[in-house]
Specification:
The protein has 172 residues and is an all-alpha fold. The protein is 88% helix and 0% strand. Helix 1 packs antiparallel against helix 3.
Length: 172
């Protein structure tokens, strides 16, 4: 149960929520401050598109890094399950790993890793979108930063539920 729940659902979701809190807020604040200091306007004046220079790199970074972070989260979750199984149930670590390999199919880990880039794209797009909504006041930076984190977490959870329903319908 620990292996399937952790690799398929919990690790991708928890990692995405943590990254949403960290990166969505950072993206929103960075782009917002750039708007306040008129750097975004200067970029447009020089002919640079804000999509290519501000949004796309952030989105690609999260699309690439999220599966790596989820893989790390999988490892930490399995290690935690191993420690609890040994402490509470007397199951040795080698026995835990043997049972883990027998019962947890590779597809569960792959499903978690497949979800991760989608979560990264969602987080980046929401963080950047909210950053561009910031107006010329510093108060709006805090306001939209909070909104971006809440929106990113909501949409990550919503897409996770959508993935679960879709995969259940497909028999995965």
């Amino acid at each position: 149960m620990v292996g399937i729940a952790a690799t398929r659902e919990l690790a991708p979701l928890i990692v995405a929520i943590v990254i949403a809190g960290r990166s969505a807020s950072a993206f929103t604040a960075q782009i917002g401050v750039m708007k306040i200091t008129e750097e975004v306007d200067a970029m447009r004046t020089m002919g640079f598109g804000s999509w290519e220079f501000l949004v796309l790199p952030r989105m690609l970074a999260l699309i690439v890094s999220m599966p790596l972070l989820v893989l790390f989260g999988d490892g930490v979750a399995v290690l935690g399950g191993m420690i609890v199984a040994q402490a509470e149930l007397g199951v040795s670590m080698s026995e835990f790993l043997a049972r883990f390999q027998e019962t947890v199919a590779l597809k569960h880990t792959l499903i978690g890793l497949i979800k991760a880039p989608f979560f990264g794209a969602i987080i980046a797009l929401i963080g950047c979108y909210r950053g561009f909504q910031i107006n010329s006041s510093t108060e709006s930076v805090g306001h939209y930063t909070t909104i971006s984190v809440v929106n990113a977490i909501f949409w990550v959870i919503a897409f996770n539920a959508l993935f679960s329903v879709l995969l259940t319908e497909l028999g995965w």
